[in-house]
Specification:
The complex is a heterodimer of chains A (about 260) and B (about 300).
Chain A (H helix, E strand, L loop, with lengths): L3 E12 L4 E7 L12 E4 L11 E4 L2 E3 L4 E7 L3 H7 L6 E8 L12 E6 L4 H12 L5 E6 L8 H7 L1 E6 L6 E2 L6 H5 L4 E5 L2 H13 L3 E5 L15 E4 L2 E4 L6 E3 L6
Parallel strand pairs in A: 8-9, 8-12, 9-10, 10-11, 12-13
Antiparallel strand pairs in A: 1-2, 1-7, 2-6, 3-4, 3-7, 5-6, 13-16, 14-15
Helix pairs in contact in A: 2-3
Chain B lengths: L5 E3 L2 E3 L3 E3 L21 E3 L16 E4 L2 E4 L7 H13 L5 E6 L4 H12 L6 E5 L10 H4 L2 H14 L3 E5 L7 H10 L4 E4 L3 E4 L1 E2 L4 E2 L5 E5 L4 H12 L6 E3 L6 H9 L4 E4 L2 H4 L3 H16 L10 H4 L3
Parallel strand pairs in B: 3-4, 3-16, 4-7, 7-8, 8-9, 9-10, 10-15, 15-16
Antiparallel strand pairs in B: 1-2, 5-6, 6-14, 11-14, 12-13
The chains are: A alpha/beta (about 260), B alpha/beta (about 300).
Bound molecules: flavin-adenine dinucleotide, flavin mononucleotide and FE2/S2 (inorganic) cluster (FES).
């Protein structure tokens, strides 16, 4: 179907915590071309400060009801405007954008690693894996127990392990220190989260020769490959993280 | 029916809505969103002789009603353009225009020669106003002596329609428009981005890796409009106006001030269909006002005693 611009109606804006929330949107056309790891560009109306669109990952898709969800964290002006939207309001989006994760085959041993709001693109990936009969391990890192959200959703897609920086829930410390990584030999690791976290996962994968895809969150102006603002430094030169990414194979990045 | 067409010399444009270089990719990125051939013309991403990687990331900072960029002319060079891009864009039923750039006069000349030989590229936009490159770019467009020289040398080899893109980062843009006209340019386009900067206070460092960058979007519109009005009153060649155009009303302001055509830039990032919506809006305005020829709008405020 290709990329498109649509005004979509909000079915629900669910507040998970003062910081995190989920917008559920009613799809106008068929969403069958949505792939895990892809994102949408959201128009935030009402302020000269939110002039550009905001890129947000596709969190979950219900192909039967033809609806999908976005999982947000309030980071600044744009996301705080979005947090105040109500059911029935409409939101202008460009979608679906970017590359997607390479969905693993049935018998591959897979770990999904997410940190903070970076868990967003991994749920849809996990569900796509489930369709192929693969149940991944899922390692989610949060700063502290108050920031733990959506874990039950992830439990439906795989076996969930938690870490918190302060040790209030799950193992204490960063995801790369988790005992899981010492005990299990994975074929593939998929990762999204703060850059420091992704870089340490990347170095673990390099050391152990594990296939790894990461999802970058570079600043974007257009989101569809025309402004060249969002480039990532890769072995093939500067590539746009909105069309050649946001999902990159670790081997392509100069990390 | 209203007549939306205009001409630069003997080159006809079916309507006055073009896209601004660097904001429209190679046009093909918009195929999913609308039929690009509906536009009067498209200006492709700035091209250089050689492959360029551009400036380091971060290259973009959002500012109130606008954005700063320091992309720095990232492109794959003219060989790649000829073999990979030209075949995809040459059959668009609109004027496909290449934006040419260089570090030295010789680069501009060699590039202009190559573009001149491409049958379906009827015009070139000479960019002497890019603020984001260390060599060339705006250095040519802000010095009257070097501006004259580069336009003169390119004019010698380039036989199709030559549009000179002017920098707003000068004391008198009229002076540069006149130089372009004197040296045989067929048209001038303005404005390129305004040199600006932003600082990330939480990180206590500049938002852009290059510290400074080019400001575009509605924030620059009043400045751009003033410059277009000044230039339109100073030269006889057609003026192409741009800078912050988001809507048909914005475009009409530029045309009333004297622009024969407009380019839509940053607006395409926010709404990929902005350019055709602007075209439709201009047409509707003419129908409502009973104006049959777009030429009646061009420079209207300069003809009445206002
Ligand atoms: C491909 C992609 C997918 C993303 N998916 C999600 C998602 O699913 N959920 C989610 O909550 N966020 C996601 N983000 C990040 C989100 O785009 C930013 O948080 C948002 O644009 C901030 O807008 P704002 O107006 O609220 O904040 P601003 O006021 O614009 O900025 C506030 C802070 O957020 C930072 N910021 C701004 N833009 C980005 C960005 N593109 N990436 C990272 N930090 C940024 C700024 O540096 C600043 O420190 C994604 C980003 C990308 C590029
Ligand atoms: C990301 C970006 C890249 C640009 N690249 C070029 C370029 O390669 N060549 C050029 O002549 N102008 C370039 N420009 C300038 C635009 O063509 C235009 O002159 C300017 O953005 C003002 O118009 P606007 O406010 O409608 O965007 C670029 C602008 C932006 C925002
Ligand atoms: S955000 Fe414009 S090219 Fe990627």
């Amino acid at each position: 179907m290709g990329k498109r611009t649509e005004d979509l109606i909000i079915i629900e804006n669910k507040h998970l915590s003062p910081e995190f929330f989920i917008l559920e949107l009613s799809g106008k056309d068929n969403l069958a071309d949505f792939r895990p790891g892809q994102f949408v560009q959201v128009r935030v109306e009402g302020s000269p400060e939110t002039f550009l669109r905001r890129p947000i990952s596709i969190y979950d898709v219900d192909f039967v009801k033809n609806t999908f969800k976005l999982f947000f964290q309030i980071a600044g002006k744009g996301t705080s405007v979005l947090s105040k939207l109500k059911a029935g309001d409409s939101l202008n989006l460009i979608y679906p954008l970017g590359t997607s994760f390479t969905v693993p085959e049935k018998n591959e041993k897979v770990l999904l690693v997410g940190g903070g709001v970076g868990i967003a693109p991994l749920l849809f990936l996990g569900k796509c894996m489930n369709e192929k009969g693969n149940i991944p391990d899922i390692l989610l890192g949060f700063r502290n127990s108050e920031r733990i959200v959506e874990v039950d959703q992830f439990r439906e897609a795989g076996k969930v392990f938690l870490t918190t920086e302060d040790g209030s829930v799950g193992e204490k410390g960063f995801v790369t220190n988790h005992s899981l990584l010492l005990q299990t030999k994975y074929d593939k690791i998929f990762c999204c989260g703060p850059e420091s976290m992704m870089k340490s996962v990347a170095s673990y994968c390099r050391k152990n020769s594990i296939f790894c895809e990461v999802s970058l969150e570079n600043l974007m102006a257009c989101g569809f490959g025309v402004c060249l603002c969002c480039v990532a430094d890769t072995v093939r030169g500067n590539l746009c993280s909105c069309i050649d990414g946001p999902v990159f194979n670790l081997n392509d990045l100069k990390w | 029916m209203v007549n939306l067409g205009f001409s630069i010399g003997d080159l006809y444009f079916k309507n006055p809505v073009l896209t601004a270089s660097g904001t429209f990719g190679n046009g093909t990125e918009f195929d999913d969103f609308f039929d690009v051939s509906r536009l009067g013309g498209i200006l492709l991403k700035g091209t250089t002789l050689e492959n360029r990687e551009g400036n380091p990331y971060p290259r973009m900072a959002e500012t109130p009603s606008g954005m700063l960029n320091s992309v720095g002319l990232q492109n794959k060079g003219i060989d790649y353009f000829e073999s990979e891009i030209y075949p995809k864009v040459k059959n668009y039923d609109t004027n496909v225009i290449v934006n040419i750039n260089g570090s030295y006069i010789d680069d501009y000349v060699s590039l202009a020669e190559r573009i001149n030989s491409l049958e379906n590229i009827p015009a070139a936009e000479l960019n002497i106003s890019c603020p984001n490159v260390k060599m060339g770019g705006m250095a040519f467009g802000t010095n009257p002596v070097s501006a004259r020289e580069v336009i003169r040398e390119v004019r010698k080899v380039y036989r199709k329609k030559l549009i000179v893109k002017l920098s707003p980062n000068v004391t008198s843009i009229i002076e540069f428009a006149r130089i372009a006209e004197d040296e045989g340019a067929d048209s001038v386009s303005l404005i390129n981005t305004l040199l600006g900067m932003a600082i990330d206070v939480s990180k206590m460092k500049p938002s852009l890796a290059t510290i400074t960058g080019g400001l575009s979007g509605p924030a620059v519109k009043p400045v751009a409009l003033r410059m277009v009005w000044q230039v339109a009153n100073a030269v006889k060649i057609p003026v192409i106006g741009m800078g912050g155009i988001m809507t048909a009303t914005d475009a009409l302001e530029f045309m009333l001030a004297g622009a024969s055509a407009v380019q839509v830039g940053t607006a395409s990032f926010i709404d990929p269909q902005a350019s055709v919506k602007i075209l439709e809006g201009i047409e509707n305005f003419m129908i409502q006002k009973g104006i049959t020829d777009i030429g009646e709008i061009v420079g209207f405020i300069n003809r009445k005693s206002v």
